[in-house]
Amino acid sequence: MCETEELRAGILHVDMDAFFAAVEQREHPEWRGKPVIVGAGPHDRGVVSTASYEARKFGVHSAMPSREAYRLCPHGIFTPGNHTLYAEVSAQIFDIFYRYTPFVEGLSCDEAFLDVYGSYKLFGSAYEIGEQIRKAIREELQLTASVGVATNKFLAKLASDMNKPDGITSVPTHPREIQRFLAPLPVRSIFGVGGMLAKELVRIGIRTIGDLQNVPLQTLISFLGESTAHHLRSLAFGLDEREVVNERVEKSISREYTFGNDEIDVEVIRRVLLELSSDVGQQLRAANKYATTVKLKLRWSDFKTITRQKTLSLAICDDFSIRDTALDLFLQQDLSAPVRLIGIGVAGLLDELPKPNPQLTLFDDPATERTEQMQKKERLSKTLDKLRSDVLDGGDIRLGVSDTR
Length: 405
Prior knowledge:
This protein is of the alpha+beta class. The protein has three domains: 172 residues, Reverse transcriptase/Diguanylate cyclase domain (Alpha-Beta Plaits, 2-Layer Sandwich); 66 residues, DNA polymerase, domain 1 (Orthogonal Bundle); 137 residues, Dna Ligase, domain 1, CATH 3.30.1490. Strands 5-6-1-7-8 form a five-stranded mixed β-sheet.
């Protein structure tokens, strides 16, 4: 894009506000205005999945050990959550998105990019579409969302965070105005710049995006390497050529978590992995599907991202198999560098299990024994789903897959 060329805004990033906690407050009106903490119980070894804004005022945040959350906010309402319900509400949210454009790229169950360039004649400008989506979510689902409106994905995601909760932010569209808009923001505002990289940038005098815009590229390369330097430099000027990837047909189910600070503690990362695995399992069962592949995604502090996957001999839908496979993939990696993001996913989705070969039932076959064991795991996982849904209001029961390692 020429530096004098102005584009129309046509990319939205819609991000639900404290999604799991907000759904819980909607379902339990007596919890509204109170600190709600979704995740492990206050005395369990698990972590916080989501905290309401009332709880965040006390320093509670996602991926924090629940015992630490209890220390910071002992009067908080701890709930294991209802991920089957969250999946249902997520589907309703995405149905609203698809009213305005077929080009929707879901990043998780509670956020997505939308390309609305082709929707102007029907619904108005990108900003007007963003407002219509927020209104529909508020009126139909009694939830709030924050929206970023921009010319590309990076800027839209950055903008959606600026007026949370329940806000909408529009980024300028002229390149020079975009540069001025970004300049005063802290360098950590750039998606992917975690604690370790931010410290390295501060060490060379880069504290704001404006500093990053002004530093010579060769200087940046000498400190950070060519790939990272070019990546950061492009984002500092608001350049991002990624397109919204539309996949309406569900080919996989995944959950990701980005750490607030690059994480080096393997135990903390492992706890998050277990929580993500449980969430993926619940979404898989809520969709009435089975998976044949489990995937692990890791992004290091230098933006290097790896994905590892394992294809299973039997299709699965239980928490135990997902967790154990993901954990095995995780422990095979070199964990000496700080982790920025971790993701767990399943793919190769099937609507039903393949029919067994009847000839194998004439003999004692190890595969048959494994299938029986898997069925037990599936029944237990489905029982846990029901118990999560039926847990008494206000209870602090934590139901999930126990960690025996």
